[in-house]
Design a protein that fits this description.
mainly alpha; 69% helix; 0% strand
Length: 162
Amino acid sequence: MTFGFSYIGPAYLVLLMIPNLLWTKRKPLGYERFAARENRVLLAFERIGEVLVSAAALVFADFNLRPWTAWSLWLVGSFLPMALYEAFWVRYFRSERTMRDFYRDFAGIPVAGATLPVAAFFLLGVYGRNLPMMASSVILGIGHIGIHLAHAKEAKENPADD
């Protein structure tokens, strides 16, 4: 682990934040009802994970580009889920923006809006050989993916809530 500024980390955070900022004005119909029923433990994991992943992305220089080796494929591997994440948002914003649209599988990936960024940051941690990023991604994943799996299940069981 090398402390220092990472320019890759903030780039990933921007890729994560821009669609989420747009989403705040284009939430799925009825989302507030789902959010009100979120598991508090999963919500705590999600919030803690968000802070830890963001901090790790900013304070470790391990994620910056290095001379190309086979290990660099981990960086490419971390970018692929982030690129799919952006494509997920394009599909969502072009949809009718219902809960089912938001939680519909994307490229065969369940709850892609939660799964893909967690995978991207975890793989970024592997690329950087950075245990704090990998552990932070796991904490984030427990909360974020867990919450969204519950929402997806609820949206499937109660289509009238759309």
